[in-house]
Amino acid sequence: MGEPVTLNVGGCVYTTSLSTLQRYPDSMLGAMFRGDLPTVRDAHGNYFIDRDGPLFRYILNFLRTSELTLPCDFKETELLRKEADFYQIEPLIQCLGDPKPLLPYPTNTYEEVVELSSTRKLSKYSNPVAVIITQLTITTKVHSVLESISSSFTKWNKHMMDTRDYQVSFTFGPCDHQQEVSLRVHLLDFISKAGFTIRNTRVHHMSERANENTVEHHWTFCRRVHKVHD
């Protein structure tokens, strides 16, 4: 398992192995401890993550066993779901299921929606599995969000495939697919900081060709906005 790694998550200190943290390479932790994302350390040299410390216990146990085990009287499922969304551990997100339907919004408000999708084509016969091509697409009618993404993510401009009404896309080839993971994590954080919360997450697996598999990840973000009356 290699040398132990110590993390400070919201003030709670955990010790685990690097292999445990990298169990799901496409997760935020996988990208973080692969070197694709910047890390922060506390005064004692522990990796610091500014998230819910007590709930990280369940995240870490899932990484260790790939099983979700919760106390019978556990009452923080919705909070744990948000943590799973933040860390982008897809199997855990699926274990937790879709969130409960939201109550109707008041009549003086409406909902803005941002859709983020990742389409990844994988080679069936390579070991380890090789990514042939992957594409990230952001779709929303909130024009200011698209403008902010286009201007804030200039590091990835060379991967931008298309910019249309309501949509911007980035495409990555087989040699730089890890950059897609980094961009995806940054986009999830960027959209969340814009006041949007994840409504649901879904994963879809397809086999279109004899030598390819396609995996689609989809996130729906929503935020409540007050209507402006003339």
Automatic annotation (TrEMBL):
Residue runs in coiled coils: none
Residue intervals of the BTB domain: 3-104
Gene3D superfamilies: Potassium Channel Kv1.1, Chain A (3.30.710.10)
Organism superkingdom: Eukaryota
InterPro entries registered for this protein in UniProt: BTB/POZ_dom, SKP1/BTB/POZ_sf, T1-type_BTB
GO biological process, one term: protein homooligomerization
UniProt-listed Pfam families: BTB_2 (PF02214)
Name used for this protein in its record: BTB/POZ domain-containing protein KCTD6a isoform X2
Organism: Parambassis ranga (Indian glassy fish)
Gene this protein is translated from: kctd6a
